[in-house]
Amino acid sequence: SAVISQKPSRDICQRGTSLTIQCQVDSQVTMMFWYRQQPGQSLTLIATANQGSEATYESGFVIDKFPISRPNLTFSTLTVSNMSPEDSSIYLCSVKYNNEQFFGPGTRLTVL
Amino acid sequence: AQSVTQLDSQVPVFEEAPVELRCNYSSSVSVYLFWYVQYPNQGLQLLLKYLSGSTLVKGINGFEAEFNKSQTSFHLRKPSVHISDTAEYFCAVSPQGAQKLVFGQGTRLTINP
């Protein structure tokens, strides 16, 4: 299995600021994924992060709002930029490893 | 495109009773099917998956699910639930050959003593 850690586990931020979430996996993986889980709702894919190339964003998500870095095969960051209360969610990192998708514990973000 | 519908947002049951959590999907291509569980304040954990072969799939913690292609369903069952099964359960599909998962809205399973 793949073990994923995320930092921070939770944060409370002011409107208009930005937060960078880190995701570390204990195995080398080709693809990493970032999901958002809004309060009381299901998970929605934000983007797929490939090492050495630009991230691929899903409909409704743009790079200016959610810039992603993928410097190597075990690490990725997601930045939530110019935050508003509507960005309050749990952000989860995920990887596909041995044909199974593993999820990190999530980062619980509250924007005031 | 794919979509997943979990027909019940909440399911309350008594301890040791059987439970079924319903999941229907829509897709124009063949898909793989998954059930994930999210315990309070924790990340998602894979319960079981259907990739091919037998339509009855057994997972962890005594759960099983049956893939019904004609009804495009993948319902999750457990013959006798325990208090520790209290969690949010998510059904998900992945188009064969693709990497991403499309999730249903989730079903909150509450076990009453």
What does this protein look like?
The complex is a heterodimer of chains A (112) and B (113). Chain A has strands at 4-7, 10-13, 19-25, 31-37, 43-50, 56-57, 68-72, 75-80, 89-97, 100-103, 107-111. The mean pLDDT of chain A is 93. Chain A has 112 residues and is mainly β. Chain A starts with a strand and ends with a strand. In chain A, strands 2, 4, 5, 6, 9, 10 and 11 form a seven-stranded mixed beta sheet that branches. Chain A has a four-stranded antiparallel beta sheet with strand order 1-3-8-7, with no helix packed on it. By secondary structure, chain B is mainly beta. In chain B, strands 2, 5, 6, 10, 11 and 12 form a six-stranded mixed beta sheet that branches. Chain B has a four-stranded antiparallel beta sheet with strand order 3-9-8-7, with no helix packed on it. The interface between A and B is medium-sized, with 20 and 19 residues.
**Gyration radius over CA of chain A:** 13 Å
Structural class of chain A comes to mainly beta
The helix content of chain A is under 10%
Shape descriptor of chain B? globular
- How many helical stretches of chain B? 0
Instruction: Give me the Rg of chain B, rounded.
Output: 13 Å
> Biggest interface in this structure?
A-B, 20 and 19 residues
Oligomer: heterodimer
Structural topology:
The complex is a heterodimer of chains A (112) and B (113).
Chain A: E1 4-7, E2 10-13, E3 19-25, E4 31-37, E5 43-50, E6 56-57, E7 68-72, E8 75-80, E9 89-97, E10 100-103, E11 107-111
Chain B: E1 3-5, E2 10-14, E3 19-21, E4 24-26, E5 31-38, E6 44-50, E7 56-58, E8 64-68, E9 73-78, E10 87-95, E11 102-103, E12 107-112
Parallel strand pairs in B: 2-12
Antiparallel strand pairs in B: 1-4, 3-9, 5-6, 5-10, 7-8, 8-9, 10-11, 10-12
Question: How would you concisely characterize the structure shown here?
Answer:
Chain A has 112 residues and is mainly beta. Helix content of chain A is 0%, strand content 54%.
